[in-house]
Write a structure and sequence with these properties.
It is built from 8 helices and 7 strands. The protein is α/β, with parallel strands linked by helices and 176 residues long.
């Protein structure tokens, strides 16, 4: 029937293949993590809505096995353009020995040890993976349908005495 209107069966097949490839790419693109730069900026921005960090005005950051994220946080050192001031960024391959306000990681192998560290030091665990927030990381970013999203684990947040402004709870996905 389509070939009567000038569209050949092979063109229809090609159109279907292109459509399926486009849908496949769209689905994969919706689950991609945010860029390191966007993660750093968004995490620094949302911390302005937590009372302890807003009062102190500055945070120290430790990044585990994510050098591009460490570079992105480092670029924010000293800047205060609408977000919390990053005063120090260090990079390492495991849980730090000294106290940091934020500890960023994306590897589930560090989860149990990082949770103990966070409890001991009242540190915020942050990540670029939603699944880790579901499992106990305090705060995370990701993309859904191509849009940046925040995720907050309420149990982890309460365990380190974070006090978020009410409007934050309206814009984040929450887990317990």
């Amino acid at each position: 029937m389509f070939w009567r209107k000038g569209i050949s069966p092979s063109s229809i097949g090609l159109l279907i293949v292109i459509l399926l490839m486009t849908l496949s790419f769209t689905v994969r693109a919706s689950t991609l993590p945010l860029s390191p730069n966007l993660q750093a900026v968004l995490l620094a921005k949302i911390l302005m809505y937590e009372k302890k960090f807003k009062k102190s005005g500055a945070v120290s950051v430790y990044v585990i096995n994510a050098p591009l994220v460490a570079e992105a946080f480092s670029r924010l050192i000293g800047e205060t353009g609408g977000h919390i001031n990053i005063k120090l960024v260090k990079f390492g391959k495991g849980i730090p020995d000294e106290k940091f306000d934020l500890v960023y990681f994306n590897d589930i192998r560090f989860l149990a040890e990082a949770k103990k560290y966070a409890t001991r030091h009242h540190s915020v665990l942050v990540t670029g993976k939603k699944k880790l927030v579901e499992k106990g990381v305090t705060l995370g970013t990701s993309a859904e349908k191509g849009r940046p999203q925040f995720y907050l684990n309420l149990t982890a947040s309460f365990s380190i005495d974070l006090d978020w402004e009410p409007k934050v709870l309206k814009i984040v996905g929450t887990f317990r």
